[in-house]
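Q: How do we represent a protein-ligand complex in a form that can be generated token by token?
A: Start from the inputs.
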Amino acid sequence: MNFSYKKVNQLIKSRRSTKPRYFNGEKIADEIVWQILENAGWAPTHGLTQPWRFKVFTDDGLKKLASFQADLYQKLTPEDNFKPEKYARMKTNILNSSHVVVICMERQKSEKIPEIEEIEAVACSVQNMTLTAAAYGICSFWGSGGVTYTQELKDFLGLGEKDLCLGYLYLGYSDRPATLSRRDPIQEKVDWINSVNS
Ligand SMILES: Cc1cc2nc3c(=O)[nH]c(=O)nc-3n(C[C@H](O)[C@H](O)[C@H](O)COP(=O)(O)O)c2cc1C
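Then emit the structure tokens for the protein with flavin mononucleotide bound:
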């Protein structure tokens, strides 16, 4: 198969995270979200365990998730640390989205594959989703703030003891141009070994 490497390069570089507060409320067709999820399922996976599990919240489901997480934030935060604007944001980030894909990892029963590899596989699946979204002109944001790593969220999502929640992928459309981002030259992160003496 022959893909346009130029287009792939362009897609990867132009993918940008857009914060949900910049979403415009427009709904993504469910069929497109299913295509995004379909592509998530083609991520690499050691032993074909396919550890990714996704809980998709949309329509009134967004209200369910928003209320749950804002109330949990209030419950877990000592009164003198509680920030009303954070409480509000915990709702609006979700309610501004068209769909929120809660990213989960289901631990293999035998635990044969190291846990880190299962997390890596799920991270790859998320990148498949963000790239697919970008190709459709859909904005995405992977966030792990707030209550992501709490036991209460795991219970709410029905996760098993050894499963993990790895954050939310917020999806929506935006009228704003994507926020700029930057990366260090990749050469700074690469050791290139091409001789026995390198
Ligand atoms: C696992 C993971 C969790 C993240 N959680 C947050 C978060 O909670 N809040 C935040 O501002 N950015 C978070 N980010 C970073 C953004 O998703 C985004 O990648 C970053 O702002 C860089 O923007 P860019 O993707 O457009 O280059 C997270 C990224 C990853 C990979």
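Residues 40 and 125 are 4 Å apart (CA to CA). The beta strands are 52-58, 99-105, 139-143, 164-172.
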